Amino acid sequence: MALVLIDARRRILEANPAAESLLKMSRRALAGRPMSEVIYHDSPIFELIDRADRQSGDIMAPGTPIAGPGMHNGIICDIRIRSADDGTFVLALAETPSRESSDSVAGAAGFGRILGHEVKNPLAGIIGAAQLLERQGQADQSELLDIIKDEARRIERLVNRLSAFELFSAPRMQAFNIHALLDKIIAAERAAIGANVSFNREFDPSLPDVIGDADHLQQAFQNIVRNAAEAAIDNGSHGSVTIRTSYAAGLSMKQARRGAGLRKAMMVSIEDDGQGISRERQATIFDVFQSSKSGARGLGLSIVSEVVAAHGGQIRVDSEPGATRFTVLLPLGDGVDHG
């Protein structure tokens, strides 16, 4: 594991032998040198360091490309960054064992730039057209136009982050109201699905704000809700989707980010009355490239699993004909609840 200690000015203070090997520079040459002279300044690692400076807890970004004068075509690393009270940062970098070739790194960078350019331009046009219609349209159209603008801006933010190689496994944590987010999803899905699905809300108003990445969690919950809605009408008739929130007894932290024990948790469940998912499919439903049109469970569930795990949470699915429930547990607060 390569370890690098840097100060608040992003200058290297110390590096271990593994870092010398990874960065292709000796400790003597690295000491006192700005990070931007070792790793190219447009690398995502600098954004990750900035985020570590703004928020508590470790910042993790697996499969992140880095390149520098001594690394030629670049490498893929799993990165973990921890900030200290004295303003320094410890960077832990492990070269990904199954890293892609240098051509793949360059190709990913090129894809990110193309994605950022080619998608953001039409999004700007969509937002502009919605604003124009809002000025000229009727009052009963305002809710739909707000959905168009909000969704376009959210996609724009996600594209910006993807083009900077920011993964779903590296969330930007801040407090937000989970019910406001779920209401946005319900409004968007009602507009997309139509009147064939009834969306039922059973929210616990006493829940506090959740600490998480609102864009990432919206993407995750919207994937689940969309799949549930499609499953509910898969047999061609009217269906229903019920979204519930509540406190959970406790979230086991054995595989989460902040140590063992139980923490207070929020539960969000999405249930549909569709045909259900077979037991065999349930075992692989969160794997990449697992999809089933008849079950209406698509590729997005691998993203859902990644987002929930990055938030220190858990997800499970329970299904039988007429009742499929996805349950997401998200930790609340920083304390550990041993009761």
Structure, described:
- By secondary structure, the chain is an alpha+beta fold.
- It folds into three domains: 2-95, PAS domain (Beta-Lactamase); 103-163; 174-331, 2-Layer Sandwich (Heat Shock Protein 90).
- Helix content is 39%, strand content 25%.
- It is built from nine helices and twelve strands.
- It has a five-stranded antiparallel beta sheet with strand order 2-1-5-4-3. A five-stranded mixed beta sheet has the order 7-9-10-12-11, covered by helices on one side.
- Strand 1 and strand 2 (12-15) form a beta hairpin.
- Helix 4 runs antiparallel to helix 5 (142-163) and helix 6 packs across helix 7.
- The longest helix is centred in the middle third of the chain and has 35 residues, at 102-136.
- The protein is elongated, with a radius of gyration of 22 Å.
- The model is unreliable at 99-111, 253-260, 293-299 and 335-339 (pLDDT under 50).
